[in-house]
């Protein structure tokens, strides 16, 4: 752990982490603006298509079918100009770590035909255990890859709007969008507060001092949040908001979108049929 | 008369923001509300926009009293919102939609304009403010100047007869400030009413034909811009001008009361 991190309290590290996540969201926005295959598709097609593939991989009971859907996800990533290195760093490693923690015990605990005995430990890996772990890991990797493809190739605002095809109420989508937007704003404010304090702080702070500062910062942020929410409501009222939200649907389906939708439907059907 | 305020008082808890204010704003006028920070300018704009209501006294818009009861009905509220638009000082409070296009379309949609007309008018105003290239951008990723323009577009798209602006040139670079002033001067061909809260006196004579000077929530002067700019005692007393050391082109270094923008 570096000295830079040692000087920061829990709250500050959390805010910094969230702020970095926000920066990554910005990166995702750049990817979404790229000229790859998925970037050219209507957000609704992507939401429907990628979610149906996730569902197909979850339902499949044959390993090769899940592997095929995973290969399809990797191909889509390549066609959408998303590097395999990015996928490995952002998805595969994390998913493998978390799923591995669950899957590894299954290798030894699932009863079945022995495949390998670990020297020294005398633990036996069973064929059934290997299959169970493979299913779990491959399903999670496939689902995570497909979900990240959606996030990487679609501005989050379009993802929210596309939710409306699933009959999510307009007011819910609008509130979700506003929540994301103002969380980002408050994170920026918190980040600036911590930077400003760091620029005026010399040496190590003691635990109690750091805690007092964290409480003070939380109080200031809470107060600003209240003020901001009041002002936002006034700004909405000022432009005619009367409790019901009216929005534009800016999506337009092109031939490519229809073709992609058919392809997604055909692939999902094939995966579900083959994976029975 | 466009607005009439009659002994109006407004308080935030125990703090009196506006104190026994009486003033009239005629139709078609360009008014500057002048005053230092905390003088009550922003609160007054919110009262003029029917967002806050007085604790004492009254406010009338074209002869009709503005009160919470009047705004409870859709008919009056929609009619008023179509006529009066407010651009907030902090654009972040005004930009809450997913894209710039959605942001500008928000007002017309809430006022139940037909969608085809909304699309047409939004595209038109984005072009006019030279921000059409930002239409698909997420508003919170924009620069301060761009945010101000989008916030302005989101109100101008409604083509209100009365435009209220809270510190419109704050945090803008000099070029953007100048472009904004030009736009406000030209807007509506001079037939619209514009009420601007500011403490920047630089472009006062361009943007206003009447000034109301506020201090501690009270009206302390009602003058023409030229009269205000030449009343040093008033400007110093209301913290709109100050003495500080500066160097002239001749190299002479001295201090005297100084109006920014002069």
Q: Count the domains of chain B.
A: 1
Radius of gyration of chain B: 19 Å
Poorly predicted segments of chain B? none
* Largest inter-chain contact set: A-B, 30 and 38 residues
Biggest sheet of chain A, in brief? 2 strands, antiparallel
Head-to-tail CA distance between termini of chain A? 49 Å
> Which overall shape of chain A is indicated by the principal axes computed on the Cα atoms?
flat
DSSP summary: helix tally of chain B: 11
E-strand count of chain B: 12
Class by alpha and beta content of chain A: mainly alpha
Features:
heterodimer; A: 276 residues; mainly alpha; 2 domains; two-stranded antiparallel sheet; disordered N terminus; B: 262 residues; alpha/beta; Rossmann fold; six-stranded mixed β-sheet; four-stranded antiparallel β-sheet; 12 strands
Sequence-ordered SSE layout with sheet pairings:
The complex is a heterodimer of chains A (276) and B (262).
Chain A lengths: L2 H4 L3 H23 L10 H17 L3 H17 L4 H26 L4 E4 L6 E3 H27 L2 H7 L7 H30 L7 H32 L16 H20 L2
Antiparallel strand pairs in A: 1-2
Chain B lengths: L2 E10 L2 E11 L4 E5 L6 H8 L7 E6 L2 E2 L2 H5 L1 H10 E4 L3 H4 L5 H11 L4 H14 L15 H13 L5 E5 L7 H13 L6 E6 L5 H4 L2 E6 L2 E6 L1 H6 L1 H6 L4 E6 L5 E6 L4
Parallel strand pairs in B: 3-8, 3-9, 6-7, 7-8
Antiparallel strand pairs in B: 1-2, 1-4, 4-5, 9-10, 11-12
Helix pairs in contact in B: 5-6, 5-7
Describe, in plain words, how this protein is organized in 3D:
- The complex is a heterodimer of chains A (276) and B (262).
- Chain A is mainly alpha-helical and 276 residues long.
- Chain A has 2 domains: 1-32 and 169-245, no CATH class; 34-155 and 251-274, no CATH class.
- In chain A, 74% of the residues lie in helices and 3% in strands.
- Chain A has 10 helices and 2 strands; from the N terminus they run H-H-H-H-H-E-E-H-H-H-H-H.
- Chain A has helices spanning 3-6, 10-32, 43-59, 63-79, 84-109, 127-153, 156-162, 170-199, 207-238, 255-274, and strands at 114-117, 124-126.
- Chain A has a two-stranded antiparallel ribbon.
- The longest helix of chain A has 32 residues, at 207-238.
- Chain A is flat, with a radius of gyration of 24 Å.
- Chain A starts with a helix and ends with a helix.
- Residues 1-6 of chain A have low confidence and may be disordered.
- By secondary structure, chain B is an alpha/beta fold.
- Chain B has a single domain, classed as Rossmann fold, CATH 3.40.50.300.
- In chain B, strands 6-7-8-3-9-10 form a 6-stranded mixed β-sheet, sandwiched between helices.
- In chain B, a hairpin with a 2-residue loop joins strand 4 and strand 5.
- In chain B, helix 5 (100-110) packs across helix 6 and helix 5 packs parallel to helix 7.
- The mean pLDDT of chain B is 86.
- At the A-B interface, helix 7, helix 8 and helix 9 of A face helix 3, helix 4, helix 5 and helix 6 of B.
